[in-house]
Amino acid sequence: MTLKHVLSGLVVGAGLLAASSQAQVQAQATPVKALASSTPWNVGVLAQGGVGVTDDRSSFKFLVVGVHGGKVLTSEIGHGVLQGNFEYGVEVFPLWQAYTPKFQRANCYATPTTGTTLVSPGLYCSPLYTTGGTYTGISITPMILRWNLTHGTRWMPWVQGAGGMIWTNHKFPGFGSSTLSLAQDGPGTDTSVWNFTPQFGVGAHYFLRPRRSIDFAANAVHISSSSLGDKNPGVNASVQFSVGYSWWK
Questions:
Q1: How confident is the model at residue 80, as a pLDDT?
Q2: Which residues pair with 130 in a beta bridge?
Q3: Which residues pair with 124 in a beta bridge?
Q4: Residue from 197, 198, 189 nearest 171 by CA
Q5: Which of 4, 105, 168, 189 gives 20 to 30 Å between its CA and that of 177?
Q6: Which residues of the chain register pLDDT less than 70?
Q7: Gyration radius of the chain's alpha carbons
Q8: pLDDT tens digit string along 180-235?
Q9: Which among 127, 152, 142 has a CA at the least distance from the CA of 204?
Q10: Residue 233: is it exposed, middle or buried by C-beta count within 10 angstroms (0-12/13-18/19+)?
Q11: Closest CA to 209 of 79, 21, 83, 31
Q12: Residue 156: which of 65, 243, 81, 247 has the closest Cα?
């Protein structure tokens, strides 16, 4: 055997060893680390439900169903348990519903108008009618700023801040009182069909296999019209939990 043959054999052997090592590294790469080495797109579906948590909104319940789209914008940053990457996302909910208590109110005025009767001196009101109940609408969250923690193997936790808006088919939430007054039932006591949803959340992706995950999250959501209506009772705080499924491209 000549030196040429020996050198050729060493080169071929080294190439095969390198290829084998690379294949082993790729095979051993966890789903999280495989994604952390790139900047993928994240597309998913989710359902979310929750309740109001303040005393005056503890009977409010929520259900939303929609889609999530996100783009990882950075490679891994940092070290240890806080190591991660930054993702920008958007969520659209074609179905948004709130289930609220029903109550009775009237439309009241300081002077008589058609269909009103004198209730007390200087207070003329329509017959009582039912308001509240179920509100249906659509919601979009156009700004989701999410930090993915990428130190795990199959679990990828995250934290986020977000802001969105809701449109409902009638003014949300209901406002007024069966104890009739101009302050509660008079002119200038409407709310708004538009509300805003600043929120903060935590969650995690669990990778069933590479580039496929089931998703869990908990969000603290504030709902406010920012005074687009005459009154802005809003929902100071609600806690909403979601479950979803994501495809990573």
A1: 87
A2: 104
A3: 109, 118
A4: 189
A5: 168
A6: 1-29
A7: 28
A8: 999 999 999 999 999 999 999 999 999 999 999 999 999 999 999 999 999 999 99
A9: 152
A10: middle
A11: 31
A12: 81
Could you tell me whether strands 155-172 and 199-209 are parallel, antiparallel, or unpaired per DSSP bridges? antiparallel
**Residue appearing with tokens 């095979």:** 27
Q: Which amino acid is at 130?
A: T
The residue whose two tokens read 């939990």 is 241
Confidence (pLDDT) at 159:
98
Which residue has tokens 């029903």? 102
* Of residues 114, 144, 201, 132, the one with CA closest to residue 168: 132
DSSP string, 26-95: HHH--HHHHHHTS--EEEEEEEEEEEE-SGGGTT-EEEEEEEEEEEE-S--BSSGGG-EEEEEEEEEEEE
The kind and range of the H/E element at 190 are none
Question: What is the model's pTM?
Answer: 0.83
